[in-house]
Design goal:
Blueprint lengths: L4 H10 L12 E5 L5 E5 L5 E5 L5 E6 L4 H19 L3 H20 L6 E6 L8 E6 L10 E2 L14 H32 L4 H12 L12 H5 L5 H7 L1
Antiparallel strand pairs: 1-2, 3-4, 5-6, 5-7
């Protein structure tokens, strides 16, 4: 999704992007014994934190998304940042707890989560806008509340056969991210209070993304060693 020019432009225009690797990149090397060697990096997982100027986590997008689904979700988090940006201290704490609890409750009940919308203030010549959090599908009585449309991401024209084959998998991942995983995140942030990314990164990768950062073998230990026929013999020879 980051290879999309539209996604990259939206991120660069709307946020102060920072990339951090949370563990060394794992590399697999296969020697076929005949002079042929293949070296590849293993695909990891990612999480997108949206934070305020103090580094406080406002919300998190877990894993890989379809490009348009990612931009749509980021647009909501951008409005969350604007909605929460002027608050601080106990007021910010209370409003974020309310936000995360509302979203967690909606997802637990299999409802669409609430949506942020921007309401243009015509008395100020539409220069300023106020951000409101409303139930999905709700409309304000005066009819002046408008959802803020995220930019449309154009599908790449040079998609390969492998890209097309993986598209349904990516769509399924996007759906899981926005339901099961986001519910876990909302529940955690509602209970945890003020946290920074480093405070919850191990929990996030282990319990939500199922990629334990403390596991040296990234969950592949049983696959690599359980059925290895020479394990006992090699252990004796050491």
């Amino acid at each position: 999704m980051f290879s999309s020019d539209d996604v990259a432009k939206f991120i660069n225009d709307s946020f102060e992007p920072v990339w951090e690797s949370v563990r060394p990149v794992p590399i697999v090397r296969i020697d076929f014994g005949n002079g042929e060697v293949i070296t590849r990096t293993l695909h990891g997982n990612i999480a997108t934190y949206v934070c305020n100027s103090e580094g406080r986590v406002l919300d998190i997008l877990p894993g890989i998304y379809q490009p348009q689904g990612y931009v749509d979700a980021l647009q909501q988090l951008l409005l969350l940042h604007r909605w929460a940006g002027w608050r601080g201290g106990a007021m910010l704490e209370a409003k974020l707890k309310e936000y995360h609890q509302r979203q967690a409750d909606a997802l637990k009940a299999k409802r669409d989560p609430d949506q942020f919308v921007s309401r243009l203030d015509e008395t100020k010549y539409s220069i300023e806008s106020s951000i409101k959090l409303i139930a999905a599908g709700a409309k304000e009585e005066k009819g002046r509340t408008m959802p803020v449309a995220a930019p449309k991401v154009k599908p790449p024209s040079d998609r390969t056969a492998a890209d097309i084959a993986n598209w349904p998998i990516l769509a399924e991942d996007t759906a899981i991210n926005e339901t099961v995983r986001r519910q876990q995140i909302h529940e955690k942030l509602a209970a945890a209070g003020a946290v920074k990314p480093g405070d919850i990164v191990k929990w996030l990768y282990k319990d939500v993304l199922h990629a334990d950062l403390d596991d040296r073998y990234l969950g592949l230990g049983k696959t690599l060693f359980a059925d290895y026929p020479f394990a006992a013999e090699e252990s004796r020879s050491r």
